């Protein structure tokens, strides 16, 4: 079954005309990213060329995807927009709220029992507004999207930073906050600064223990967590064509870890095979008609340095397995160099847990390659030293892998755990026994992120990212520094053996199969569907519009916290046990910035209340300032807001009275989320001004009343001793975004427009 085939055919029907217009406007051969962007302009056919990294452009995405943790807030906002039905195909997926603890069946039922109020809310909202709903157990959003909705040349936005996974099927798929999703679902244009372009040429072909995961692990080491910010990464070359579609998806998925707007690959035979295997031959037939438009022009790939802002070349013949981490996904180490580096840094070598899954590596191919390592170890009489946990990516993957014996392969390890088709440990939904002790330890996983406390809540857990096959090998050896290319293991007979190279199946030979994929179609007419939100619920809370700007300078503001070093959205709004409050703004605001390190005392969740002189938890101090009518600001370091797309990291400060966030630099999604929620997101003109902010400062804006595009804003810092500093801040607000600020939020403008047209 192909969802939305008529929409896909309409997209393809306008491709030739819009590509021709884009060629005339740009005046040179086009990359794939440019083709997709220019064919999805809100205005229609291009009439001008947009400047990369500078021009704000309105786009018309083809579809929207939301996961349950972010969908709650997105749909609560959509309910305020005054619309009766979504304007584009949209889906919500219940994958984040199921905790991994015992095993698939028990954990799934436990998750349904604990989250029934939220699941029922999402189900009814989807039913009412024409949104497809994927029920608990159906699978991880990005794997389900790849199997059912992604199509070459399409544009999609999603309320999760790993929406970019769909680039594996040649889409421009971009992670956004819920307010952006509301714009598109409400039938409005979606705004994005025209991305710069990074071209990555892949030569050669993977072999042995090297995998698609190792490509992106190496790229992360080259570009770092902020090297792709504001850019689309486009992969090409013979090496790109040799990869499977799910391998391409893995690479695109972790593009979020380099800050990239998205990543993508040109349409090729691997995509044809995957689309056909997942029941979408009609998409292949339609795409083949315009196949030349669904990849970059030949001239671009022949001379990439003329068309991309940056070009990187990687020879897959030379690539070896990598382990990235700990605590950041860009600390890349080839396996052959790991032992020396681990000893030098004092990283724990022994591993208790090894985890395979997440939206990054939970495909049929991933499971089959990891299972081959397990089968080889069993055949050679080697028992695993670590616990192996498995999260299949979807019910279709799980059902097919079960049929073909791969899950039974994992069960041959007595302590293996097959978890629910859900995110689980990757997002902190893991009840790991003993993690509360805070002991220093290491784990290895095939996930995408490895920030401190992310997987199990223990700040001393050193998490390392690797391919599924390397995770399986390390689980067997029980040591992070095990190099399967050169090292041997001792089997039960005392013999030294080597593990065979992994082998697997790109696609199931007998085809995919599933009894119930978990999809719930919405009602044709949802006007009679009732949505109930109890006023006493601690899980769901109807939203009150944020107050508009009063048009005056902000004065008398206090520094709530000056965040030191890495401050991701996990630090600003933690996941794990806090996920249950994602639909209740006031309750989840109690986790605001509790993970950030306060530069004034180098502690977490303890800041000074200047009104009392006492120290308290960040949310409590923020509430005290708000109750006293005192505005607050947050000061931050580089790449502030790195990580997830969660708009709660912007909504919580807005709710608790923070008026501005001033940093050395922003991650893209978080900066946009701040703007959407009526916040000031500012960067220092001189990064050294970060040091001028003192704990007891009073901050006055001097020229906010003249807020305008391209005009810096000036702040006065009045120190406790009466001395003053003046700080100049820059911003990227255009006229429309300033209107959001004036109105109190972008949603306030949407609701006002809907009321006028009612």
Quickly describe the structure.
The protein is 31% helix and 18% strand.
Overview features:
758 residues; alpha/beta; Aconitase, domain 3; Aconitase, domain 4; globular
Walkthrough of the structure:
The chain has 758 residues and is an alpha/beta fold. The chain has 25 helices and 32 strands. It folds into three domains: 5-318, Aconitase, domain 3 (2-Layer Sandwich), CATH 3.30.499.10; 322-497, Aconitase, domain 3 (2-Layer Sandwich); 557-757, Aconitase, domain 4 (Alpha-Beta Barrel). The longest helix has 26 residues, at 104-129. The two termini are 37 Å apart.
CATH architecture call of the largest domain: 2-Layer Sandwich
The CATH homologous superfamily name of the largest domain equals Aconitase, domain 3
**In terms of per-residue confidence, which ranges show pLDDT below 50 for 5 or more consecutive residues?**
none
Share of residues in helices:
25-40%
What name is given to the CATH topology of the largest domain? Answer: Aconitase, domain 3
Based on CA atoms alone, the radius of gyration comes out at: 25 Å
GO molecular function: 4 iron, 4 sulfur cluster binding; aconitate hydratase activity; metal ion binding
Family: Belongs to the aconitase/IPM isomerase family.
GO cellular component, one term: cytosol
EC number: 4.2.1.3
What topology emerges from the helices and strands here?
Elements (H helix, E strand, L loop, with lengths): L4 H9 L1 H12 L5 H8 L16 E4 L3 E5 H11 L11 E4 L10 H26 L2 E3 L6 H8 L6 E4 L13 E4 L2 H8 L4 E4 L2 E8 L8 H12 L7 E6 L1 H4 L3 H9 L8 E4 L3 H9 L3 H9 L8 H5 L7 E6 L6 E3 L7 E3 L3 H8 L5 E6 L7 H16 L7 E4 L4 H9 L2 H6 L5 E2 L22 E5 L15 E5 L2 H10 L11 E2 L5 E2 L21 E2 L36 E6 L6 H4 L12 H4 L8 E2 L4 E2 L2 E3 L4 E3 L1 H10 L4 E5 L11 H8 L2 E6 L4 H9 L3 E5 L13 E4 L11 E6 L5 E7 L4 H9 L2 H12 L1
Parallel strand pairs: 2-3, 2-5, 3-4, 5-6, 8-9, 8-11, 9-10, 14-15, 14-17, 15-16, 17-18, 22-27, 27-28, 28-29
Antiparallel strand pairs: 1-7, 4-21, 12-13, 19-20, 22-30, 23-24, 25-26, 29-32, 30-31, 31-32
Helix pairs in contact: 1-12, 2-3, 4-5, 4-7, 8-10, 11-12, 15-18, 24-25
């Amino acid at each position: 079954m192909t969802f939305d085939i008529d929409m896909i055919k309409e997209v393809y029907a306008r491709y030739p005309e819009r590509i021709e217009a884009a060629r005339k406007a740009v005046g040179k051969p086009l990359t794939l990213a440019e083709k997709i962007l220019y064919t999805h302009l809100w205005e229609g056919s291009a009439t001008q060329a947009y400047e990369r990294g500078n021009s704000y452009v309105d786009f018309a995405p083809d579809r929207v995807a939301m996961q349950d943790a972010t969908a709650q807030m997105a749909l609560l906002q959509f309910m305020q927009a005054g619309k009766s039905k979504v304007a584009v195909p949209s889906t919500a997926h219940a994958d984040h709220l199921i905790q991994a603890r015992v095993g698939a069946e028990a954990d799934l039922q436990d998750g349904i029992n604990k989250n029934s109020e939220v699941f029922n809310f999402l189900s009814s909202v989807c039913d009412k507004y024409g949104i497809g709903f994927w029920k608990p157990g159906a699978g991880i959003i990005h794997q389900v999207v790849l199997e059912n909705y992604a199509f070459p040349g399409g544009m999609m936005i999603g309320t999760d930073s790993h929406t970019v996974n769909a680039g594996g099927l040649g889409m421009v798929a971009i992670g956004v906050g819920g307010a952006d999703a509301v714009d598109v679902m409400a039938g409005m244009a979606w705004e994005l600064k025209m991305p710069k372009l990074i071209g990555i040429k892949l030569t050669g072909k993977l072999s042995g223990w090297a995998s698609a995961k190792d490509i992106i692990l190496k790229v992360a080491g080259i570009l770092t967590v902020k090297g792709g910010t504001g850019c689309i990464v486009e992969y090409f070359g013979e090496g790109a064509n040799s990869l499977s579609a799910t391998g391409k998806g893995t690479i695109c998925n972790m593009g979020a870890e380099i800050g990239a707007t998205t990543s993508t690959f040109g349409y090729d035979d691997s995509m044809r095979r995957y689309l056909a295997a997942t029941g979408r031959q009609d998409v292949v037939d339609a795409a083949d008609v315009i196949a030349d438009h669904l990849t970059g022009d030949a001239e671009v790939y022949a001379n990439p340095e003329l068309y991309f802002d940056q070009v990187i070349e990687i020879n897959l013949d030379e690539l070896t397995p990598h382990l990235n981490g700990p605590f950041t996904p860009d600390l890349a180490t080839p396996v052959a160099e790991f032992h020396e580096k681990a000893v030098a840094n004092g990283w724990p070598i022994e591993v208790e847990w090894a985890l395979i899954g997440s939206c990054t590596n939970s495909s049929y191919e991933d499971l089959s390659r990891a299972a081959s390592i397990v089968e080889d170890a069993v055949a050679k009489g080697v028992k695993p030293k670590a616990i192996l946990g498995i999260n299949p990516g979807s019910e279709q993957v799980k059902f097919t892998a079960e049929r073909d014996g791969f899950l039974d392969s994992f069960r041959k390890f007595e302590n293996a755990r097959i978890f629910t088709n859900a995110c689980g440990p990757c997002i902190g939904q893991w009840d790991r026994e003993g993690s509360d002790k805070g002991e220093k330890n290491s784990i290895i996983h095939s996930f995408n992120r490895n920030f401190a406390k992310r997987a199990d809540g223990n700040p001393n857990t050193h998490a390392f990212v690797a391919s599924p096959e390397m995770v399986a090998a390390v689980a067997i050896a029980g040591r992070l520094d095990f190099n399967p290319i050169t090292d041997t293991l001792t089997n039960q007979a005392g013999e030294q053996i080597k593990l065979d190279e992994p082998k697997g199946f790109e696609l199931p030979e007998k085809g995919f199969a599933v009894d119930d994929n978990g999809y719930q179609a919405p009602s044709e007419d949802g006007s009679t569907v009732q949505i109930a939100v109890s006023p006493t619920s601690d899980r769901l809370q109807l939203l009150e519009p944020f107050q508009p700007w009063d048009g005056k300078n902000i004065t008398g503001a206090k520094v709530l916290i000056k965040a030191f070093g890495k401050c991701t959205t996990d630090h600003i709004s933690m996941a794990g046990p806090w996920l249950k409050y994602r639909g209740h703004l006031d309750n989840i605001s109690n986790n605001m910035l509790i993970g950030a390190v306060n530069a004034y005392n180098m502690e977490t969740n303890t800041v000074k209340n200047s009104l009392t002189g006492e120290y308290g938890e960040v949310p409590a101090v923020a509430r005290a300032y708000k109750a006293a009518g005192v505005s607050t600001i947050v000061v931050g370091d580089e790449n502030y807001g790195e990580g997830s797309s969660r708009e709660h990291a912007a909504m919580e400060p807005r709710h608790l009275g923070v008026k501005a966030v001033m940093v050395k630099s922003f991650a893209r999604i978080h900066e946009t989320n701040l703007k959407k929620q009526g916040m000031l997101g500012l960067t220092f003109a001189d990064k050294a001004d970060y040091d001028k902010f003192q704990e007891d400062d009073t901050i006055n804006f001097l020229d906010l009343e003249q807020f305008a595009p391209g005009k810096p804003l000036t702040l006065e810092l009045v120190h406790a001793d009466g001395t003053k500093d003046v700080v100049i801040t820059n911003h990227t607000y255009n006229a429309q975004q300033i209107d959001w600020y004036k109105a109190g939020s972008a949603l306030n403008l949407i609701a006002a427009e809907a009321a006028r047209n009612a």
